[in-house]
Specification:
- This protein is an alpha/beta fold.
- 21% of the residues lie in helices and 29% in strands.
- It contains five helices and ten strands, in the order ββααβαββαβαββββ.
- The protein starts with a strand and ends with a strand.
Length: 194
């Protein structure tokens, strides 16, 4: 059984973006040791354009071979003229508003997202599934999430887009490890208690 991992950046107070989903204020913290950690430990989470710029284009995937993201996350790439931002992974976009995919390598999941994720997890062989965002998708898939990798940036938003766009539900996870960086970023990995 493959794992679904929500690999997400957030503020200290748990927001993944401002009320419109913009998280560009966090970009300034991606430097030095932290950037080295991301590119060496989770190279597949860097989009193709970033992999090219950082000289890690051919780095093998370590944790994930499949990506699921929401329409709003995907829209950022489309607005930049990129139709396959994670071409080194199998790409899925959960969207009820995108009728057709603009790229043959990107599959649109228009309905039964939970069922599709369960089928992907049941494939058995292969690496895990990277849940890239966003809030509503994470809320819908909360029961399917096996791991959390939370990159907490030293900022307080006060309000905005929460990590999980869902109703109240207590879901327990176990802390696996914590990594801190000189720029104030803290990365924590949790596994779901089942």
């Amino acid at each position: 059984m493959r794992h679904l991992t929500y690999f997400i950046a957030c503020s200290i107070d748990g927001f993944i973006g401002d009320p419109d989903g913009d998280a560009s204020s966090m970009f300034g913290f991606v430097d030095g040791d932290y950037l080295e950690f991301l590119t060496s430990e989770y190279p597949e989470t860097v989009p193709v354009a970033g992999r090219e710029a950082l000289g890690i284009r051919d780095s093998p995937n370590k944790h994930f071979d499949t990506l699921i993201q929401g329409r709003a996350s995907y829209r950022l790439a489309l607005d930049a003229g990129i139709t396959s931002p994670y071409g080194h992974l199998r790409e899925y976009v959960a969207s009820r508003s995108l009728e057709t995919s603009p790229d043959a390598g990107v599959e649109i999941i228009a309905d039964d997202l939970v069922g599709r994720v369960r089928a992907l997890k049941a494939e058995g062989d292969g690496l895990g599934i990277y849940l890239c965002g966003g809030s509503q998708i994470a809320g819908e898939l909360l029961d399917e999430i096996d791991e959390l990798v939370i990159k907490t940036y030293p900022q307080v938003y006060g309000s905005g887009m929460p990590m999980f766009g869902a109703g109240f539900a207590v879901t327990d996870f176990t802390l696996d490890w914590v990594r801190t960086f000189g720029n104030g970023v803290v990365v924590r990995k949790y596994s779901r208690k089942r």
